[in-house]
Specification:
alpha/beta, globular, Spore Coat Polysaccharide Biosynthesis Protein SpsA, Chain A, 9-stranded mixed beta sheet, single chain
């Protein structure tokens, strides 16, 4: 059953919001307006916008933090910059391309008060325009994760300020996967991560091109590899399975097919494992989603290899953006 929110939002003084963005335009205005009635203060961290986002945020009454863009940018670094000036018990992190649902803050706060060990509370994140493209629909499906105790959250979540600060906040150097990595450390420190049955945010992925989907999947593969490198040892095994799958399907199968095919033409039949995997997965997720899941192992593998190539060369990777 969905949770019931606290009726008057008199407890909003316990919460600051940290919004991060760059050139989000009208989406940023919508995001900030959705938050203003629900929290004590909105902190907007801008990472070099050129579309007037800073003026929009300041005009709406947000506290603006301009990120030093002479340093390498990461979303983790932007969130930490906002967290540094939070002075409330809770902080609501939001991406600037999201609109917060009217009753989310009160609902999440009610859950937090009833669950003192909950360090992170997130709810339903949905795509604002799921029918705009197949890629938006895939995002909408991705957000639909099980209700209850979780291992990770996304970019939108309510967190206990003290709990986040106790583990040192986000890792500034992660270019992707910073929220799951933070949640892992929070859990190791005794905090709980929960996804509750409540509408939280509307997200605008704005993905209309195959290249955007590819880059987003490549970024996921990079995050898998770095997460496994940081926390892949037992018992955590963080993202080890995801990294292995990307390499098996995105590198192992193509290379094995090529080698066997050069030995004998029948070796190319090994590629049949791809459509067979699609058929197997389609029983659970539908044909289209299964097809993209299998195809996505190619860009994911590219991301995994990109991480390790950069690490071997001791060279920091640039941000992998899809829009």
């Amino acid at each position: 059953m969905p949770l019931s929110p606290l009726s008057p939002q008199s407890n909003s003084s316990q919460i600051d919001a940290v919004v991060i963005g760059r050139n989000e335009g009208a989406r940023l205005r919508s995001c900030l307006i959705s938050l203003m009635p629900q929290v004590a203060r909105v902190i907007y961290v801008d990472s070099g916008s050129s579309d007037g986002s800073v003026d929009v945020a300041a005009g709406l009454g947000a506290t603006v933090v301009r990120l030093d863009m002479t340093q390498p940018f990461t979303a983790a670094r932007a969130r930490n910059a906002g967290l540094a000036i939070v002075d409330a018990r809770f902080v609501q992190f939001v991406d600037g391309d999201c609109r917060v649902q009217p009753e989310w803050i009160a609902t999440a706060l009610a859950f937090a008060d009833a669950h003192p060990s909950a360090a992170v509370i997130c709810g339903r994140r949905r795509e604002r325009f799921p029918d705009a493209s197949i890629y938006n629909r895939l995002c909408d499906r991705e957000w639909n994760t099980p209700i209850g105790p979780a291992k990770a959250c996304g970019g939108d979540a309510l967190m206990r300020t003290d709990a986040v600060r106790a583990v040192g906040g986000y890792r500034d150097d992660l270019i992707a996967g910073e929220e799951p990595e933070l949640c892992l450390r929070l859990a190791e420190n005794g905090g709980e991560i929960w996804r509750i049955d409540a509408e939280m945010t509307l997200h605008d992925a704005a993905m209309t091109r195959f290249s955007q989907w590819w880059n987003r999947s490549r970024r996921a593969g990079y995050a898998y590899a770095e997460g496994a490198a940081l926390h892949g040892a037992a018992p955590t095994r963080h993202w080890v399975t995801e990294t292995r799958r990307a390499l098996i399907w995105g590198v192992g199968v193509p290379i094995a097919t090529l080698i066997l095919g050069l030995v004998h033409p029948a070796g190319f039949l090994l590629l049949a494992v791809w459509p067979l995997q699609v058929l197997r997965l389609s029983l659970r997720m539908g044909f289209v989603a299964a097809g993209f899941s299998v195809l996505g192992k190619l860009p994911e593998a590219q991301g995994v290899l990109g991480y390790w190539w950069g690490r071997i060369r001791r060279k920091r990777s640039a941000l992998i953006e899809y829009k």
